[in-house]
Amino acid sequence: MRMEYKDYYKILGVSKDADDKAIKRAYRQLARQYHPDKNPGDEQAEETFKEINEAYEVLGDADNRSKFDRLGRNYHRYQQMGGHPTDFDYSQWFGGASSSGSYAPGNVDLGDLFGGGGFSDFFNTIFGGAAARAAAANSQRQDDTFGRARGQDTNLDATQTVDISLEEAYEGTARTFNQNGSQFTTKIPAGAKTGTKIRLKGKGNVGSYGRGDLYIVVNVLPHERFERAGNNLRVDVAVDDVTAVLGGKVQVPTLDSDAQLTIPAGTQGGQIFRLKGKGMPTIRGATKLGDLMARVKIRVPENLSDAQRNLYRQLAGLA
After folding, report:
1. For 66-96, how does the pLDDT look when each residue is reduced to its tens digit (9 = 90+)?
2. Which of 132, 152, 172 finishes a domain?
3. Are the C-beta atoms of 193 and 288 separated by less than 8 Å?
4. pTM surpassing 0.85?
């Protein structure tokens, strides 16, 4: 049968005379480094993690290691005599494999255990049958142990709250943070609102099983003039009584620059006018803006002159 020889000592980075403690120490270190939880989406790391587990199933078990050592001596002697690696006769080393030379794992799905494709053909052929089933179950226990330990570790994720002004939320801004003795700056996007979370991967607390994430939680401070409702803004606009009656134009403040609003004749106090595109930017599309809702506040003149007061009396007589 032709297949690739696996050098499990090389995979774990230990010598052939390494004791059990050295093998276990090497395995734990590599398993932490290449564990899928620490390398999401990294297919190469996943394959390395599979190889590390497979190597430990052999070298971490006395019977499997003894068999592998005997096979290794024969394999290397065969190579020294000029034999081609793919022509080596593995038949005498079959360990409970099926007649096809591959192991069918029965009730244990190695693909589920390792995210697709379990142990190698080499392992299944040499250490097949009950050994492979036991190895698969043991690897699942190791993976579960890693997960439990990681969950019981000190909470690795950290949270910091940052206050920003409404103007900063409109334009976008940046803040500098200190975490774990290091200082770094992160951008806060335009359109951020109270409750917006910015995830900084790997900037959280440090524990035995890795480093967590830092979550920046935004708090937008109240504004003296504008009130925010989603991506829309609300603002009160003072309109004198004459303009409200006869109509005219008034200036409306925005976060960008003042806008001009046409007030129709007969405008009532509390009436709301919409200024499109004068509100807050959308956090996932800064070019898309909300609206500004301008609410009319009728301003009644004070300290009237005698002439003005007489005119109001004449107007009242005509009503």
Report:
1. 888 888 787 777 667 766 656 566 665 655 4
2. 152
3. no
4. no
